[in-house]
Amino acid sequence: MTEATPPVGDRFRRFRDRLAAASLDLPAQRQADDDTNVAVPANAQEDRTPQPRQDAARRSRRGRRGGGEELRVPEAEFTSYYGRPILKAPVWKWDIAAYLFTGGLAAGSSLLAAGGQLTRRPALRRAGRVTALGAVSASAVFLIKDLGRPERFHHMLRVAKLTSPMSVGTWILSAFGPAAGLAAIAETAGWLPRRGPLGLVGRALPPAGHAAGLVAAVTAPALATYTGVLLADTAVPSWHEAYPELPVIFAGSALASGAGVGLLAAPPAQAGPARRMAVAGAALELYGAHRVETRLGLLSEPYRTGRPGRLLRAGRLLTAAGVAGALLGRRSRAVGALSGAALLSASVATRFGIFYGGVASARDPRYTVVPQRERVNARRTEVDPATD
User: Rg of the chain's alpha carbons, rounded to an integer?
Assistant: First the structure.
C-alpha cells in the first residue's frame, strides 16, 4: 500500500515555513559574511564557512588600500588613437640636417681663416674664407628651401625676438653672410689690375677683407651653437632633454670641420692652427656625444640604437682617426688630407645622427610617456616622502 502524496497546499506551507526560518538567521549570517568577506549563496544557509579561494580572488580584485603592493589596473600600453604618435614628429627632412652641418662648417672655416690671417698663413686664410662663403651660401639655400618661399626669410627680418632661437639665428646668418662674402671676395684682389678703377678696388679689398674676416670670426661661435639651442627648444624628447649638450656638440663639430678644411687645403708647415682646432673640436664633440648617450636615461636610447646609433658611432671613430692622423702625420701632406677628410665626414655623421635621434624619439610614445611619469612620481615623492 503506497503512501499518499501531500496536497499542494501542504507543500506550499512547508516551503513558506522554511523561508521564514531562514529569514530569522539572516542578520547573523550577514554579520559573519562581513567579518570573513565571503559571499553566502542565497539557497544554502547551512554552508557559512569562509572559502579561501573566493576570499583571495576578492582581495586581489579590490586591492589593498593601505600597502599599495597590488595594482588595480595593468600597466598602460604605449598606444594612441589610430596608431598615431603622441607628439607630431618634425616635418624636417634631410636638408635641415645638411643645414646643421653647413652652418657649423661655415663657422669653423671662418675661425680657421681668422687664425691664418692673424698668424700670417695665407693658405689657411684663403681656404677658410672660400669654404665659409660656400658653406653659408648652401645654408641659405637649405633654409629657404625648408621655408617654402624665399620671401619668408625676408619677413623674419622685420622683427627681432631674443626669446626665439629661429629669429636670433636669422639675424646671425644675416650678419655672418655678408662678412664672410666680403672676406672671400677680398681673396681675388691679386687677380685685379694694378691701375685704373679696378686697381683702386684691388687696393681697398685686402683691408676690407681683413676687417670682414674678423667680424665673421666673432659671429662664428653664435652661428655654430644656435642650431643646438633651436633643436633643444622644441618638444622633441631627446632634443629637449639634451639642451646642455647640443650646443657643446655643435661647437665641437664646427671646430673639427673647420680643422678638416685646413688639413685638406694647407701644407703641413702652415697647418699648425688646424691641428690645434682639431684637438679642441674633437674633445668637445666626443664629450657632448658621450653625455647625450649616457646622461638622459631612457631618452639616450634613440642615440644608441638604429640609424642614429650607427651614425654617432661612425662619427666617434672618424673623429678619433682624424685627430690621430693630424697629430702623428704632421710632415705628410697625404696623411693630413686623409685626416681632414675624416674630420669632415665625422661632422656630417654627428649632425645627421643627432637629427635622426630626435626624430626617432618623437615617433615612439614611450619616450614621451615614461619621462612624464617619472617627473610626476618625483614631484609626489618631494611632497610626501612616504608615498610609494
Answer: 37
